[in-house]
Amino acid sequence: MSSKQTVLALLERNKGDHISGEAIARQLEITRAAVWKSIAELRADGHVIEASTRIGYRLAQGSDILTKEGLSSALASLSLEHLPLYYHPMIGSTNREAKRLALEGAAHGTVVVAGTQSEGRGRNGRSFHSPRGSGIYLSMILRPDVSTSVALRITSAAAVAVARGIAESCHLEVGIKWVNDLLLEGKKVCGILTEGVSGFESGRIESIVVGIGINHSVPEGGFPADIAQIAGALFAREFPPCATRAHVAGTIIAHLLKVTDRLDDPSVMAEYRHRSVVIGQHVLVIQGSSQEQALATGIADDGALIVRMANGEERHLRSGEISLRPVGNSAWGMAGKKG
């Protein structure tokens, strides 16, 4: 690493505390001039570094430039420094890169994080808005010893993990819209895309890539017009945010490992149901070109959404998507009253 990177790593490990230029130089075995030059370059990059002639330098708690050093420090604080970490200031898609690494044999828990994505993807081929400086875009490679029959549950478990991570790091409670959206005050703050590779003969999942995109704060200039009414951010009202992107990302990664290592834990699906903003709501079921009205009545143990159609038929949805937007059909009156 360059002197700038090593100085940043040291400041990240001591974030919020002062450390003298002499101590930095001694620990990193570089000159005081190299320390001063590195501090100047880091400030030019946007890092908020305070200085005092008596007590030294301090990386401000609110400084939130996403870097590999910051992510590594966050993971180390959670005893996860062993996880393989790949950071890209800009990438096409973290999921695509994680899938490439998985095919090359990358280990369980490998993480790919990006500062921005030029080709971020959501479900059904949609693009995922990934602006620089305000979001968290990460993908994790998982190699669980499970059958393909529980694949849907992994997406549900990932949603619970992200919700727990946000609660712990940001002190915010989010709801889950089946199957992969997290909502805060009715607006989408996170999307999850799960992609798996299974063995044809064994019927076992060889690897799963869980992609997570989070709107940490409102991007400069706001959200694009086409999503402005539905997109929200964890810190839409608070600036600077009380939790940095590196801290939030590290906490979510820790929870993701925990829940996917214990997919049979009944508390995961119980929490998914508790956080659901769908159960008991009238929804529009969208499967390909077909759209039908239904009443969401529950979540099955495998993560399927249980709905009752307008004609009284009960279905377990394992694919497709739903809309919570009002659809204004008189059949709702009957659907909601059937026993």
Can you tell me about this structure?
The chain has nine helices and 14 strands. Strands 3-4-5-9-8-7-6 form a seven-stranded mixed sheet, with helices on both faces. It has a five-stranded antiparallel sheet with strand order 13-12-11-10-14. β10 and β11 form a beta hairpin. Helix content is 30%, strand content 24%. The protein has three domains: 3-59, Orthogonal Bundle (Arc Repressor Mutant, subunit A); 68-275, Bira Bifunctional Protein, Domain 2 (BirA Bifunctional Protein, domain 2); 282-335, Roll (SH3 type barrels). It has helices at residues 3-13, 21-28, 32-44, 68-77, 94-103, 151-170, 245-260, 266-275, 331-335; strands at residues 49-52, 56-59, 85-88, 111-114, 135-142, 175-177, 181-184, 187-198, 205-215, 282-287, 290-299, 305-309, 314-317, 321-323. The radius of gyration is 22 Å and the shape is elongated. α6 packs antiparallel against α7 (245-260). By secondary structure, the protein is α+β, with helices and mostly antiparallel strands.
Taken together, the total number of domains comes to 3
Report the end-to-end length measured between terminal Cα atoms. 66 Å
Q: What is the level 1 CATH name of the largest domain?
A: Alpha Beta
* Low-pLDDT segments: 327-339
Class by helix and strand content? alpha+beta
How many individual β-strands?
14
What is the H-and-E element order? HHHEEHEHEEHEEEEHHEEEEEH
Helical residue percent band: 25-40%
CATH topology of the largest domain: BirA Bifunctional Protein, domain 2
Average of pLDDT: 87
- By CATH's scheme, which homologous superfamily of the largest domain applies? Bira Bifunctional Protein, Domain 2
CA-based shape: elongated
Q: Describe the largest sheet.
A: 7 strands, mixed
Q: What fraction of the residues are assigned to beta strands by DSSP?
A: 15-25%
Q: CATH architecture of the largest domain, please? A: 2-Layer Sandwich
Number of helical elements: 9
